[in-house]
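Technical note accompanying the year-one report. For the benefit of new consortium partners, we illustrate the data format agreed upon in the data management plan: each record pairs a sequence with a structure-token string. No post-processing was applied to the example shown here.
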Amino acid sequence: MTQRQLDESTAYLQNKGFDSPEIGIVLGTGLGKLADAIEDPVVAHYNHIPFFPLATVEFHSGKLIYGTLQGKKTVVMQGRFHLYEGYDFLDVTYPVRVMYQLGIKKLFISNASGAINLQFGLGDLMLIEDHINLQGGSPLAFKNVAKFGTRFTDMAEPYDMDMRKKLVEIAKKENITLQKGVYASVVGPQLETKAEYRMLKILGADAVGMSTVPEVIVANHLNLPVVAVSVLTDMCDPDNPEPVNIQSILSVAEKAEPKMVKLFRALIGAL
């Protein structure tokens, strides 16, 4: 990744009409509907944006959508990138750096994940308060990282306290169950074994997924306030294991999605 590449990607989008967005949003598996709420949308397909990776997962759309949401200029990433697609950490986080160059001041992230904490319910939303990086690498581990921000980025409080507090208040007001917990990020794409579920519980994880952490690390590297919400799409019970299939995950995500859309829209309006 070079500054020239970022500049070319950014210039392409600015020429398309992506004009100084305030909010950036990354939408997770089965969670693309928020993009439908954008007014006067301008769409850029990933395969047209210089140096952008391509989304290879069939249920991840591959486009950036710019427009107005709750009166604020917003850019939404409909379809994200994962290590399990064969991408590296720089590919996975490249769009966050481009959105930052476009001008975003806040980053929202959503994902679908499995519930390690069995006190949580299927289809619940979980506000991520902290994370465990089990992906075996870092999006900051490259030679010229210091040109883009401080190499030794502090991660004591990676998720913005102010936005988290606002989301809790909104959820209470809207009568939406919003759990709070620790998200563990693994490589995938295979799902976890019973022994891995037990290990994750011992480590202190409340949910497990295959995304989000690289983007959050880069947001912190850029001093970009970030908030993230998981939709809990399956229960990770090592004592009563049930085979998980992607269709059931997508079905649960689809049912829970309106709650997440409501939370994110209200938070944008409150900022």
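Partners are asked to follow this layout when depositing records. The chain is about 30% helix and 25% strand.
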